[in-house]
Amino acid sequence: MTAPTKTQTVSSEIELLSFRLGKEEYSVDIMSVREIRGWTRATPLPHAPDFVRGVINLRGTVLPVVDLSVRLGMQPVAGDARNVIIVVQTGAQTAGLLVDAVSDILALPASELQPPPDLAADTAQRYISALTIVEGRMIRVLDLMAVLPDDDAEAA
Amino acid sequence: MPNDPMAEIKASFFIECDELLESLQDALTEIDEGAHDGETINIVFRAVHSIKGGAGAFGLDALVGFAHRYETVMDEIRSGRLDISPEAVKLFFQAADLLADEVHAARDGLPEPDGAEACLKDLEALLGTDRMIEEEATEEVSDFQPMGLSLDLDLDFDLSPDPSGSATSDPHLLRFKPHAELYASGNEPLHLLRALAELGPLQIAADLAAIPSLDAIDPEAAYLSWEMQIDPVIEESAILDVFDFVEDVCDLEFGSQETSADRVTSLASRPLNDPSFAQPDDIPSPDFDPLLTALSTARDLPESVATAPAAPEMPQEDAPTPPAATAPPRAPSTPVAEPGATVRVDLERIDRLVNLVGELVINQAMLAQSVTEAGLPPNSPVMTGLEAFMMLTRDIQDSVMMIRAQPVKPLFQRMARIVREASSAVGKEVKLRTEGEATEVDKTVIERLADPLTHMIRNAVDHGLEAPETRVAAGKPREGVITLSAQHRSGRVVIEVTDDGGGINRKKVFAKAVEKGLVPADAQLSDTEIDNLLFLPGFSTADQVSALSGRGVGMDVVRSSIQALGGRISISSAPGSGTSFSISLPLTLAVLDGMVVTVADETLVVPLSAILETATLTSEDIRALGPETHVIHVRGAFVPLYDLGAELGYRAPKSNYEGGIVLLTAQENGERSALVVDTILEQRQVVIKGLQQSYGHIPGVAAATILGDGQIALILDPADLVHNASGRTRIPDLTLAG
């Protein structure tokens, strides 16, 4: 395993927080990550889509939590002490992503990110904005906007 | 940059206006009640006068015009030349209402309110026409000193002798020299000069003498100045208005070409903000040219001394140049409203504090829970400390909530106006009595109470009180009385609207309800039940649809808006002596009294205001209705049964509800429903956390809260839940509609 590369981010370089979902490795741009929290039981929301695990108390604010595994068309995350919630922010929206475990912080030149090939058969396809290879492992970069529940449209 | 402080000053002017309007209403009410003493009348006069003065400074011509004419009439009263008659007081009230409209129109940039002109005409008719014009002139002169330059811009009065003392035949002479700051702040002399030209004929000459040779020019310095001769019919204050926004960053010198004696005095009356005046030993002002300087009248002299700036060539914070335009009219406002020392705070900051205290309450609950779980003895120092902490938290919470609280007085004053308008519309004589005006309620509650209260007041005038003849025949005074009272009662605010009318005609109400098919003709209803029929949607007892009520909005709407605030409304009536509506409201919208229940292992909070009673079901209570639904039989009525667990998608409907616990809730439309829960945990105050922003609307859920264990519990909206409910309580079905 690579040690986290803690180089200063220059304009052409981006940092990714990578995490594990089942056996797959995904990542998000570290700039959108606000914090990482241990697993807490979420209060389920009635009439919510299945990938919305519920809401948790984030220091007094009500934070919706998305089960990323379900969102990407896989089995639900078990929900135990080993799991973590990555709190991300896109635009004005803040949400938690429930994942199996966080693995790494990767720094790589932006030029190494490639757009994903067009294979429409997979649900996960819609949520991936780029692919890259780090030391032989393929890392998927998530499109956060697509992953998060869009307010009323899906809630209602 | 210079526009921002102006906007701020303007905003505070409008806040001040609201205070003045309030004291105006108070004083008028006192006059109405017989206080004809000079001080009360003075308060009215000063309030109107201060509004006029401030409005003049901001160039709000319509407002100035209205206030001026109102003030003129008030001055007649003040000087004892006009007697206070009941009609006059009525007109003063009407004019005060319109003045409030004018102020709000000016603030929000709305068109002028209707009826202003008619009201003023009525008002001025009190004086008689000849007298008015004649007195007008005297008033202007006698009133000159405190008013300064805020003389009205009303062209009607242009022909009256110019009170400023300068001879009207001579043109105004004005020298305008911008400072570099004027340019730096984005102002453009050309626009100002054009604005001047719009006022009337003028001659402008640019003075180029100060421009240095090309190699000595500082591109950011100001060298130009202008001299103007302005038509004397234009008021000095109108000219000053043009320079309102730049007065800090330019030299403005006024004067008129008069005798040579005046020229001599001009040496003493240097430009108003000439630094050398305050500091005679300082460097002389570089551009000062006594020959070119227009003459200031002797009147300006004391002002220029008083306000002469200390630092040379610095933009002045206190707008010294035309001080009379803004300063003097403000002065009279001080004795009018004395609300004690107050601080104006941004509402957002208060809300943040309220939120933080909410956190504190939750945290304290969490701490308490973990201390309890740790199994410490009750008399341990930790436990005693925690108890003190809990009491402090409670105190802080109460105090913070009080910051958002405001007295209901302004709301009640609005109602006084509604009574005046409504009573004159239906030709009844009505007096509004208010009690407990100082009672404080959350700002939002007050704002959202205005509409339902207006409706109730209108109803009381229109339906509650009898016509004057009927009242006299019944041995009552002609004038009906509506009492509006507010008081704190056991942690809630109770607002009552009481009339001394004929009471509810229950026979008529019942007949109407039967006619509209709201109740069966053979129903046996108690008096209270009949009274409550008024809250049914679409109910109206008025035989004729009057202009006032009967707009299709009934008491049902009033009740739903009260319920939306977490309140309840009740009615009581005694035939012949009147009807009383009582509204009970929570003190704040940030916390809510709720019943904490569990359903399918989830904890939920049901607002206490929605719960009528709780009950345990027995087999006799439950009746199957359709193949998928149940009703329960409570107190002679059939109430639909909803399984909360099923409606929220937590579980499938149970096979048997016997022994289950139900919450009997009342809907906004008076319909009742029974919600099945598993257990009732406790009754407590919870801090309301919005879900809307972080997630969006969930059917049946009003908000969320954080419990003592740090978990989030949802707060139900029973009305919305039932509205969206499937009502399935029999066949297991997981894919619920919603």
From TrEMBL, chain A:
It holds the Pfam family CheW. Residues 13-153 form the CheW-like domain. Signal peptide: none annotated. GO terms for biological process: chemotaxis; signal transduction. GO terms for cellular component: cytosol. It comes from the Bacteria. Gene3D superfamilies: CheA-289, Domain 4, SH3 Domains. InterPro entries: CheW, CheW-like_dom_sf, CheW-lke_dom. SUPFAM superfamilies: CheW-like. This is Chemotaxis protein CheW. It comes from Thioclava pacifica DSM 10166.
From TrEMBL, chain B:
Its EC number is 2.7.13.3. CDD domains: CheA_reg (cd00731), HATPase_CheA-like (cd16916), HPT (cd00088). Residues 2-106 form the HPt domain. Keywords: ATP-binding, Chemotaxis, Kinase, Nucleotide-binding, Phosphoprotein, Transferase, Two-component regulatory system. The keyword ATP-binding applies. Residues 407-589 form the Histidine kinase domain. Residues 260-340 are annotated as: Disordered. GO terms for cellular component: cytoplasm. Pfam families: CheW, H-kinase_dim, HATPase_c, Hpt. It is an enzyme of class 2 (transferase). The modification Phosphohistidine is found at residue 49. Residues 591-727 form the CheW-like domain. It catalyses: ATP + protein L-histidine = ADP + protein N-phospho-L-histidine. GO terms for molecular function: ATP binding; phosphorelay sensor kinase activity. GO terms for biological process: chemotaxis. Involved in the transmission of sensory signals from the chemoreceptors to the flagellar motors. CheA is autophosphorylated; it can transfer its phosphate group to either CheB or CheY. This is Chemotaxis protein CheA. The lineage of its organism: Bacteria, Pseudomonadati, Pseudomonadota, Alphaproteobacteria, Rhodobacterales.
